[in-house]
Amino acid sequence: MSTLTLEKVKTIKTLNNIAESGLNVFQDGFAIDNDSDNPDAILVRSFNMHAIEFGNDLKAIARAGAGVNNIPLDKCTEQGIVVFNTPGANANAVKEMVLASMLAASRNLFDGVAWTKTLEVEGEQIPKLVEAGKKQFVGKEIKGKTLGVVGLGAIGALVANSALDLGMDVIAFDPFISVDVAWNLSRNVQRAMKIEQLFANADYITVHVPLTADTKAMFNQETFGIMKQDVYILNFSRGELVNEADMELALESGKVGKYITDFPNEAVLKMKNTIPVPHLGASTAESEENCAIMAARQVKEFLETGNIKNSVNFPNASLPYVGKQRVAAFHKNVPNMVGQITSAISSYDLNIADMVNRSRGDYAYTMIDIDNEVNSDILPSLENKIKQIAGIVTARII
Ligand SMILES: NC(=O)c1ccc[n+]([C@@H]2O[C@H](COP(=O)([O-])OP(=O)(O)OC[C@H]3O[C@@H](n4cnc5c(N)ncnc54)[C@H](O)[C@@H]3O)[C@@H](O)[C@H]2O)c1
Ligand SMILES: O=C(O)[C@H](O)COP(=O)(O)O
Question: Is the ipTM here above 0.95?
Answer without folding.
Answer: yes
